[in-house]
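3.2 Worked example (two chains)
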Amino acid sequence: MGLHCSIESPSLALVLLAALVASTTAFYRPSFVPTAYHVGARRHWIAHSRIRYTSLEVSDKKKGYTFSKQAKSTGRGANGSTAASKKRQKKPDLRTQLEYARNGHAVMRGLLDPFELEPLRGELWEYGMKKELHAWRQKVEIAADSAKLAASCRTVQDCRKELSRLGVPDDSLPFLQYFNSWTSQPSVYNVVLKLAETAAILMDVESVRLYQDSLFWKRPGDGPTPWHTDARMAPFDTSHLVTLWIPLQPVLHDGTGLVFCSKSHADFALPFWNAVNQTETNPKSPWNSLDKRYQVVNDAQLVDYMPLSTGDVTAHAGWTLHCADGNLESDRLALAITYVDAQAVVREDAVSSAVGDNEDVWSYRDWVNEVPARTRGFRHARVPIVWPRKGSIKQ
């Protein structure tokens, strides 16, 4: 029996929403997916020790893009959603909240003004060009697990040589990532503030902290983004973390928008009973056949919201499995803003944990040791509380 929200019964719908949030987000701790199958008519990804891109049927694409001409909508999307409406949605409506609580992801069409995003893309393009060496060094440090080696790279070419030596060729990189541009780009921080209430509504929390923003630059020829969960890369012990993903240009049908595995954010049993570090020694591990676990048939449980117009925003919970296809054409820039419950505590092993993933350590290692572990409602300038904008945090 399906769950339907009636506008005529808002009080009942709110009760159902609260129940869904409580039941689908509590205590979930999944791990990074080193091996997985993504099987469908459009994609076929096969992984062993590293996910490899094997095939992609390209259709309905054009070289380049312009801001004045939005992506042509095919009307396709989760639950029959269409392209951005003329009237922008200012806050997530009740249906969006229900979809997010139930599936771990949602889309908000036209949430942002595309004319405001056009200059932002130009600013972040320049920012990315200036910080390119920094982004490459981050890739070297993660691949080698050595900050010293990364610091020794003086040029982008040095970084590429080290990555090649480590068995990480250019075409296997999914993107270049730039953390926390908000600290130097006021326009990014303005977007952070504008979307803070949206994050609070989706997480159903009273106060919200900015964890990080990330500029994802997917260059032509970059490989696929493998299945992963954002919260496993974060220093917090919480189930209340949300990422709002903002494409800075139209993303066409079969493009490089995010692909979500519905309800994976509520699969507590997967990491509890199945150690992720046993995937290579145990061929029968569920981590090696996620398509069967989630009954993926013809992409039925895999959802993307493409095509996406400039101004559309997708949201996904911290423990929702998601990925993206490789990029065959023009540069794709996306700004991802990650918020967390302001009452979430920092783990004492945030930097040294053998369970978590250290890929985002560049985002938080300059402040995480300055915050007392397991302290609720802490204050720090690098992770500011952004909602509510005025008022105190309950202790």
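3.2.1 Second chain
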Amino acid sequence: MGPLEVLVIECPGDTLKSEIILALAPAVDCGHLRILDVTFIRSDPLGNISSYELAELDEQELVAYDVVDETRGLLSVRDIAKIGAKIAPNSSAILMVIEHAWTTHLEKAVVAANGRLALHERIPSDVARAALEYDRASRVSDAEGGRTCFADG
């Protein structure tokens, strides 16, 4: 099994559009990603939280969730409450436990090469964007004859 990750997507209002889950379909269909658990949260205008599961959706709503492998109950009531507390009032959210299944192929190759995975760490999006922007700005500055590193010396 590959690494698991909790993914929470929040949208304003009381409904989530099926396009969100359908955007994951290509990765699921290729076997790169598996969705192991799904829970939904609603926060009313006063911030009161309620949650519901896939089984509580009507048949028409369930069609978009065919990409879900199976729900395994990996998110506890406590997990859902903690995440729910972070959801903005008058919003809805989908909580998913996803498996990065693509890493199982990498793991097999590493083991076959008598190696080990020394580090696998997620870089937050805002940090990654800042690093890429810094790199882009550095390349522009270098191309224009400027230096961005060691400017004092």
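3.3 Remarks
Residues 125-143 form the longest helix (19 residues).
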